[in-house]
Amino acid sequence: MMNIYPDEKSTAQTADTQVEMIPFLSLNGQAAAAIAFYEQVLDAEVLLKVSYAEMAQRDDSFRYAAGQEEWITHSVLRIGANKIMIAEEEQDTTRPWSAGNDFSLCLQSTDHAAIERLYDRLTADTRTVILAPLAANSFSSGYGAVRDPFGVVFQFTVTRHAF
């Protein structure tokens, strides 16, 4: 592991001191609904959720438009063994916000039933678009992809690998 803190030793790091890479979704006014949806269908655990109104109480300089009180300025969810962050704002303010094809989230497990259960729960919502039905293919006994109601593409993979 590369030590990005040159004054500290890189050996014997614990999980608390390791660098994490966490996907961050910017959902343009849909963050609270997405969080509730992921809690319901993916058993997400909300570790942190801060609304615009709460942030304004913490930071006098924070401003937002009327009707955005419940918009999310920052959140962290745990889904399975991983974390995801969700907020409203785009991170690249030099370009307008858009839901795009430039990222997806992959849910994978060696447990076929677990993948099938998550796929079924996401596709039970009629707003979810099936991009590839969950089925066996050349690299997996179960692979599928969907676009959820918030424009986020999820891939589902029953993996043979132990990583």
Report the β-strand fraction as a percent range: 25-35%
Taking pLDDT < 50 over at least 5 consecutive residues as the criterion, the unreliable ranges are: 1-15
Quickly count the helices. 3
Kindly report the average pLDDT value: 85
Radius of gyration, in angstroms, nearest whole number: 18 Å
By secondary-structure content and strand pairing, the structural class works out as alpha/beta
Quaternary organisation of the protein chains: single chain
Major β-sheet strand ordering: 1-4-3-2
Helix and strand string, N-terminal first?
EHEHEEEHEEE
- Measured as a percent range, the helix fraction is 10-25%
Biggest β-sheet strands, sense, barrel: 4 strands, mixed
Instruction: Determine the N-to-C terminus distance.
Output: 17 Å
Categorize the overall geometry: elongated
The total count of strands amounts to 8
Q: Could you describe the 3D structure shown?
A:
The protein is of the alpha/beta class. It has 3 helices and 8 strands. It has helices spanning 31-42, 52-58, 112-123, and strands spanning 24-26, 45-51, 72-79, 82-87, 105-109, 129-135, 143-147, 153-158. The strands form 2 sheets. Strands 1-4-3-2 form a 4-stranded mixed beta sheet. Strands 5-8-7-6 form a 4-stranded mixed beta sheet, covered by helices on one side. The longest helix has 12 residues, at 31-42. It starts with 23 loop residues before the first strand and ends in a 5-residue tail after the last strand. Residues 1-15 have low confidence and may be disordered.
